[in-house]
Amino acid sequence: MNRDNERLSSPFAAPRTTLGPGDLLALVIGIVVGAGIFRTPSLVAGAAESASAMLAVWAAGGVLSIIGALCYAELASTYPNMGGDYHFLGRAFGRRLAFFYAWARLAVIQTGSIALLAYIVGDYLAGIASVGPASPTLYAALAVIAVTALNWAGVRFGAGAQRWLTGVEILGLVLVIAAGLSLSTAEAQPLSPPAGGGIGLMLVFVLLT
């Protein structure tokens, strides 16, 4: 274990500074406020027994997110290292578990998140310009290819695209909020959530946002 910690604590060459504060801000906003915010609120509302229950679940999700962020802030300030989760897990449980986590993140966790967000984009684009039954899948694949190409073009180019996409996302949220406050619609009938699983299901959607 001591040998593992020594390897994990060994100094690395400092990365070249390429991104500025604005780039990092856009990156953090893009990570925290993902495309799921345009999809999951309706799913949470559909599984809620009342408006107060829905708001309470969102508040609980916010508290859990803040606790997680504070934990990461404490870990990053105590063990500063570019390895992130891999480094923290390696110090706590050894390199073997950290190795398995890194591969799980590459093969399952991150790819699953990318697929989820891509299908959300695909669903919306299919509603705007459908090209057949496979429209959501086609648009999702094109979205992944486009974002991959943007990042392949270089760090600066990808950072510029991130700033632009973050601005579009914030503008979309503002427009949705403005439409919700200004447009009057008929009240929707609340859906009956599954017995005993409503809160857990809502929390899953909230934490995926």
From TrEMBL:
- Where's it found, cell-wise? Membrane
Q: Where are the transmembrane segments?
A: 21-39, 51-76, 97-121, 133-152, 164-185, 191-208
Alphabetized UniProt keyword annotations? Membrane, Transmembrane, Transmembrane helix
Work out whether the entry's keyword set contains Membrane.
Answer: yes
Q: Name one GO cellular component term.
A: membrane
Query: What's an example of a GO molecular-function annotation for this chain?
Result: L-amino acid transmembrane transporter activity
Q: Does the keyword Membrane apply?
A: yes
Descriptive protein name: Amino acid transporter
Q: What is the lineage of its organism?
A: Bacteria, Pseudomonadati, Pseudomonadota, Alphaproteobacteria, Sphingomonadales
Q: How does it sit in the membrane?
A: Multi-pass membrane protein
InterPro entries attached to this UniProt entry: AA/rel_permease1 (IPR002293), AminoAcid_Transporter (IPR050598)
Primary location class: membrane
